[in-house]
Amino acid sequence: MMAKGFLLLLLIAYTSAMKCSVDSEVRFILNNFNRGAVTRNVDCVVGSGPCDNLGNRLKAEAPNAVRQGRCGSSCTCDQIQVRLVVNKLKREYPGQWTRVVNRFS
């Protein structure tokens, strides 16, 4: 019984993810994660550096990204895309994520 419930949750999550396609800007961010780019964009987000168009988009999304809890199968496509970037940032640059959290907590 428990296995069936788990499989159902996996199916719902998979179906939700399949409805969304990663937009080109998010794909660019994910493919170009490096120390310099991350530092530049986090500086923009926390207000300690200049912003380009990408930095401004990230800055607009940052407060919600910090405050948003898990949305599970009810995530919007935008929330899924934000979570993709946030999870990669947390995993690869936890110190930079801490700067963002400190700014918007």
Strand content: under 5%
Order of SSEs, N→C? HHHHHH
Structural class label: mainly alpha
Largest sheet: none
How many helical elements? Answer: 6
Low-confidence stretches: 1-12
Task: Give helix % range.
Answer: over 70%
Mean pLDDT level = 83
Kindly provide the radius of gyration, computed on alpha-carbon positions and rounded to a whole number of angstroms.
15 Å
- Count of individual beta strands: 0
Backbone shape: globular
Beginning-to-end CA distance, first to last residue: 40 Å
Q: What do you see in this structure?
A:
76% of the residues lie in helices and 0% in strands. It has 6 helices and no strands. The chain has helices at 2-19, 24-31, 35-46, 53-67, 77-92, 94-104. It is globular. It starts with a helix and ends with a helix.
Summarize the helices and strands and which ones pair or pack.
Blueprint: H1 2-19, H2 24-31, H3 35-46, H4 53-67, H5 77-92, H6 94-104
Summary tags:
105 residues; mainly alpha; globular
Short description:
This protein is mainly alpha-helical. The protein is 76% helix and 0% strand.
